């Protein structure tokens, strides 16, 4: 299982939310940073961007039994 920060490190080389958003070209307002709602919304947007990018790249290979 990956969390969003680990996945961002794998995909973008960044584990800090603001830096990962910058690499993913997701707007990030530093004045709103560290607000629980704002950070949660940006984290969700980042996660969706990463999942969509993985899908575009062909996804993960299936797990073998």
UniProtKB/TrEMBL annotation:
GO terms for molecular function: exonuclease activity; nucleic acid binding. GO terms for biological process: DNA metabolic process. It comes from the Bacteria. Keywords: Hydrolase. InterPro entries: RNaseH-like_sf, RNaseH_sf. SUPFAM superfamilies: Ribonuclease H-like. The keyword S-adenosyl-L-methionine does not apply. Its EC number is 3.1.13.-. This is Ribonuclease T.
